[in-house]
Amino acid sequence: MIGLSGPAGSGKDTAAQALVAAGWQRKAFADKVRDFVYAMNPPAPLIEGVETFSLAVEVDAFGWDEVKTYPGVRELLQRCGTEAGRHVLGPDVWVNALFQDEATWEAPVVVTDVRFPNEAEAIKARGGLLVRIDRPGQPPIGEAGHISEHAVDAWPFDAVIINDGTELQLGCRLLSIASECKS
Asked: Which residue from 55, 123, 124, 125 puts its CA 20 to 30 A from 115's CA?
């Protein structure tokens, strides 16, 4: 198991694609947050001053990667995940949600969004490696000041990848680290 951390836009999902192509499964703590928000289907502003849209309709049409770039959507996900989920239901709500079916996983797993110390500890407790990805020159995206973007900045990662090359180079760097990982 490998857990990836780093700021929004650093290349975590892009790097994980190399492992998925090599037979790994992609998982994320935020998968259940997105499922939760999707089920609520809140109206959200598309563009300031314009009518609202149905979040579920937009996700179905364009996918989460696109929709989370809409104004307010990333903040909605952060607030549901942290202020509503972690603060109301407990800090392990998304850890428990992710690992509830761990026994059925059939391949090594890459978790693409380690954002809090308890998430990092859950990866380490399962024998996993923690890898931070930094992308020099990447401007902050969305709610960069949110606690979920900085809670593990000082964590002692097993490896740090500087994403300063091509997507292929990024993937190769992570594959090299993954060759050391047995779980």
From this structure: 55
Q: Is residue 168 part of a domain?
A: yes
Q: Which amino acid is at 2?
A: I
Helix (H) or strand (E) holding 78, with range, is: helix 73-78
**Residues spanned by the domain of 173:** 2-178
Within 10 angstroms of residue 94's Cβ, the number of other Cβ atoms is 27
Among candidate residues 47, 53, 61, 78, the one with its CA nearest the CA of residue 144: 78
**CATH (domain of 82):** 3.40.50.300
- Look up residue 3 and give its two tokens: 């857990």
CA-CA distance, 177 to 183, in Å (whole number)?
Answer: 13
Residue 102 in any domain: the answer is yes
Cα 121-13-94 angle, rounded to 5 deg:
40
Q: Which amino acid is at 3?
A: G
CB within 8 A of 91, min separation 6: which ones?
116, 118
- Whole-model pTM? 0.83
- Give how far Cα 149 sits from Cα of 31, 47, 140, Å: 17, 24, 10
Number of domains in the chain: 1
For the chain, helix, strand, coil in percent to 5 are: 45, 15, 40
CA angle, corner 110, sides to 109 and 111, nearest 5?
Answer: 115
Q: Which residues pair with 129 in a beta bridge?
A: 2
